[in-house]
Amino acid sequence: MANSIINLFFIITLVAVAPLCFSHSTNGGYLYPQFYDRTCPQAQQIVKSIVAKAVANDPRMAASLLRLHFHDCFVKGCDASILLDSAGTLTSEKRSNPNRNSVRGFEVIDEIKSALERECPQTVSCADILAVAARDSTVLAGGPTWVVPLGRRDSKGASLSGSNNNIPAPNNTFQTILTKFKLQGLNIVDLVALSGSHTIGKSRCVSFRQRLYNQTGKSRPDFTLDQSYAAQLRTRCPQSGGDQNLFPLDFVSPTTFDNTYFKNLLSFKGLLNSDQVLVTKNQESLELVKRYAESNELFFQQFAESMVKMGNISPLTGRRGEIRKNCRKMNS
Ligand code: HEM
């Protein structure tokens, strides 16, 4: 009898503390991978199957979903604020400079949310959908996997100014970009590893044109850009017009998640100024680029670690925020 009481006590304690062993504390709230195990055991499978279908239809979607999570987390934390449409006094983050005519994937998130609402109503947050979809996208493109801590809740607001100011711009200096990462609790290792996301996906001409024609205001191209690569880019990214023309961020293996992005940087074939400065402006980031270019394994391991860290930026937990029924609008 005494033995079974002790056993029972042991089991109850174990169940109570287990989540803490796999979780991250931010603002007193905890995220942990098993968050939906009892309330919506199918959640991750549902996200995965819809992401897989979307990426099979459009391989670029893997990149777009990965980027959505980043643009969400850098503004008020990972709280799905990026998904809200403008309504009443709320101005959508979709209108910000980094997002306008650029971020995509909202329909895929809608489809995932509808499927989850059918399976387990008002249980799985839009913020968690973004985190899981980013992981699944990475895996589908050939990248590393990781266990996603869960339990984020959805914001009841958005921040256009936060979106404009916190998300680094492609023409920001190395120092500004690093500062923007540090403001989110991320460091230079996270910056270099997460920039490795640019191993997949596309950029518009308007995001790097300056490098082709007028890098420093003296009508000269950027000399840290390989000149024959620059000449190729100029054919479809003219001095004026063609703003929306698309170019692979990694021209060697545009839809495969691998370390060729870092190899490109070392041969001065990074597409964005913000990519190339990782090797031209700072010794520590240059060393990191060299290490990731040498070892895909090291890159994958650090990428996974940094994604978990990014996914833990200021989540709403407990009773803060809400579980939206529709990712595009607040419940009331
Ligand atoms: C380090 C600072 C960063 C800057 C300045 C930056 C900037 C950009 C720009 C300008 C584009 C092209 C957008 C367009 O022309 O429409 C882009 C695309 C992309 N970015 Fe970044 N980015 C940064 C970091 C990151 C991070 C941390 C991630 C993910 C964790 C990420 C993921 C992506 C992806 C996957 C794409 C391609 C999206 C698509 O094809 O739809 N970026 N980024």
Automatic annotation (TrEMBL):
Residues annotated for Ca(2+) 2 binding in this entry: T199, D250, D258
Stored PANTHER family: PEROXIDASE 72, PEROXIDASE 72-RELATED
Domain Plant heme peroxidase family profile: 30-331
Cofactor: Ca(2+); heme b
Name of the featured protein: Peroxidase
Similarity field: Belongs to the peroxidase family. Classical plant (class III) peroxidase subfamily. Belongs to the peroxidase family. Ascorbate peroxidase subfamily.
Pfam families membership: peroxidase
Function field: Removal of H(2)O(2), oxidation of toxic reductants, biosynthesis and degradation of lignin, suberization, auxin catabolism, response to environmental stresses such as wounding, pathogen attack and oxidative stress.
GO cellular component terms attached to this protein's record: extracellular region
Enzymatic class: oxidoreductase
InterPro entries: Haem_peroxidase, Haem_peroxidase_sf, Peroxidase_pln, Peroxidases_AS, Peroxidases_heam-ligand_BS, Secretory_peroxidase
SUPFAM superfamilies, per database record: Heme-dependent peroxidases
Binding of substrate, residues: P168
CC cofactor note: Binds 2 calcium ions per subunit.
Keywords noted in UniProt: Calcium, Disulfide bond, Glycoprotein, Heme, Hydrogen peroxide, Iron, Metal-binding, Oxidoreductase, Peroxidase, Secreted, Signal
Binding annotation for Ca(2+) 1: D72, V75, G77, D79, S81, E93
Site-annotated residues for Transition state stabilizer: R67
GO molecular function, one term: lactoperoxidase activity
Catalytic activity: 2 a phenolic donor + H2O2 = 2 a phenolic radical donor + 2 H2O
Disulfide bonds: C40-C120, C73-C78, C126-C327, C205-C237
GO biological process: hydrogen peroxide catabolic process; response to oxidative stress
Domain of life the protein comes from: Eukaryota
